[in-house]
Amino acid sequence: MGSCDMLEFSPNDHRVPEDERDLTAKNLERLRQTPLPPGDTLRFVFTGDSQRFYDEADDLVASVNQQPGISFFVVAGDISDFGFAKEMRWVNEKLRKLKVPYVTVIGNHDAVGNGREAYKHIFGPLNYSFVYGDTKFILVDTNGREYNFDGHIPNMPWVNQQLGDLQGARRQVVISHVPPQDEDFDPGVRNAYAQSLREARNLVFEMNGHRHSFSIGQPYNDGVWYVNSDAFSERRYMIVTVWGDKQFRIKQIKF
Amino acid sequence: MTQRLLPVVALAATLLAPARAQAQASGPETPTAPAAPAADKPQPWYRPRHVVLQTAGGLGMISAGAGYAYFNDKVETDILLGYVPKKFAGSTLSLASAKFIYSPFTLRLAEKWQLKPLSVGAYFSYTHGTLNDEERGQYTRDYYWWSSDTRYGPLAGGRITYVRPTKANARPRNVSFYYDLSTNDLYLQSYVTNTKGLSLGQILVLGLGLKADF
User: I need a surface site. Which of A172, A193, A205, B106 has the fewest CB within 10 A?
Assistant: First the structure.
C-alpha cells in the first residue's frame, strides 16, 4: 500500500484502488472462465468468519491451495471484525493468493458502523446469486439484528423469487451468515424463511457462519440440512462435494 | 476482556511521554527558559495560540481547529473539527478530535527555518453521522465490545517551521508544515493479535497539516 493509501480520512473511509473494488463481480468473472461441464461433480471450500484472524489466514490459503479439484472458495460472512474497509482489504490481501476465486456474503460484523457501505463498495451486492455448473448459489443478508429486526431481513420477496427460478440449474444452495435458528436472526422472518427453504426445489442445504463452530443438522426436522462453518480461528475448513439432485458430502480439513 | 487492554497498554508509553515532559517543564529549569519579550497586553489564558488545518490522519478529509502550546512550546493540545463527504465513507461524517503532542527538540536549520524532528502524542476522536451505531435495544449489553464512533490512538511525526517576524505585540507568527503517522485502537488491536499476518506498515495512517501562530 502506497502513501496515498495511508492518507486515510477516517476508519470509515472506504476509498480503494480500482482493483480492490467490486471483488464479487471480479471473482465471479474469474469463475466463469473455468466452467464446470454439465453433469460434473462440484467441489468447493466452505468457511466463515475471517474477522481479525490474519495469522491463520496465511496458513488457510496455503492449505486450500494444496487441494485438487476445487472450483471456488466461500467465506460465510464476518470478513471484518469492526466493519472497516481496511480490514476487508487485509483479508482480500490474503484470499487473493488463493488459486481459485472466492466469494463472500455479508456478516453482522461487516454491517457495524458504515461497514455495509464499505462491503458494497469493496465486494458488491448484499444479496446476489450465480449459477455454476449445475448448481445455483443464492447468497443473502440474514443479519437481522443489524437492522434492529425491521422485518425486512432477509429480504423474503427476493429470496422467494430466487428460490423459484433455478435458471437452468439442477439444484440450489443458499448461503448466509446468521443461521435462522440463531437469536440474531429476525424472529419475525424466521418461519417464512424456513418455510421457503422447505418448499424450495432441490435445495441441497443452507450454509451459515456466525457461530464459529462446525455443525450439520436439521434443526426444524423438516428435511432441510443446515451446515455451519468453523471460523478461521478454529483452523478448520470444509471441502464440500455436490452431485445428483441434492447429494452432498462434507469433509473437514485441519490446517 | 483481556483483548481490550492490549491497545491501552500499547498506548500507555506514548501517553506517558507528554506527562514526563510536563513534570520536567515545571521543574527548576522553567524560570530560566528564554521568554518572549513582554507583550503589550497579556493574552487571556483561553485564547488559542495557533490555528490548524489538516488532511487525513483519520480525523477527516479536511479538519480545522485551534490549539494551545505550553512549556516552551514543547507540549500542544489541538482541537479539530473534521469532515468526510458521503461518497468516501457511505455517509457524511463530522469528527471532533483532540490531539496531545510532545515535541522535545527544536533544531534551527537557517535564520528563518526550524525543524522539530520528532513529535509524539496521542489523539482522541468522536465521529458523528455513522450509519449503524446502535439504536436503543438493538444489542444486548456488550454485544460489540468497542464503540463505532470513539477512536483513540498514538501518533508520531515531525514538522518544519517558517519563522516569520513577530507581531508588534511580540506574538509569534510562525507557520509550520507537519506530518504525523498514527493508528487507532482497533487497528492496533488487529495488529497486536496478528503480528505475523499483518505488518506495522499496514496499520499506519498518515496525516498532513499546517499550523499557524496568530
Answer: B106
DSSP A127: S
Buried b (16+ CB within 10 A) or exposed e, A166-197: beebbbbbbbbbbbbebebbbeebbeebbebb
Residues B72, B75, B80, B85, CA torsion sign: positive
Q: Which pLDDT belongs to residue A17?
A: 95
Q: What is the pTM of this model?
A: 0.89
Please give the tally of structural domains in chain B.
1
Question: According to the model, what pLDDT value does residue A3 have?
Answer: 64
Let me know if residue B39 belongs to a domain. no
Low-confidence ranges of chain B (pLDDT < 50): 1-2, 5-6, 8-37, 39
Measuring CA to CA, which residue among B145, B171, B193 is closest to residue B69? B171
Partners of residue A90 in chain B, C-beta under 8 Å = 190, 198, 202
CB atoms within 10 A of CB B146: 17
- Chain B residues whose CB is inside 8 A of the A178 CB are none
Residue spans of the domains in chain A: they are: 42-254
CB A248 within 8 A of CB A241: yes
What's the pLDDT at B41?
67
Compute the Cα dihedral for A255, B2, B4, B10 and give only its sign.
negative
- Residues A30, B78: contact at Cβ < 8 Å? no
A9 touches B at CB < 8 Å: yes
CATH of the domain at B68: 2.40.160
Share of chain A above pLDDT 90, in %: 98
For residue B209, being part of any structural domain is answered with yes
Q: Which residues of chain A have pLDDT under 70?
A: 1-3
N-to-C CA span, chain A: 29
ipTM value for the complex: 0.93
Which CATH homologous superfamily contains domain A42-254?
Metallo-dependent phosphatases (3.60.21.10)
CB of A86 less than 8 A from some CB of B: yes
Q: Is residue B6 part of a domain?
A: yes
Per-residue pLDDT at B42: 72
Amino acid letter, B128:
H
The domain in which residue B74 lies consists of: 2-22+47-128+146-213
Cβ neighbours of A53 in B, within 8 Å = 194, 197
In a domain, B58, yes or no: yes
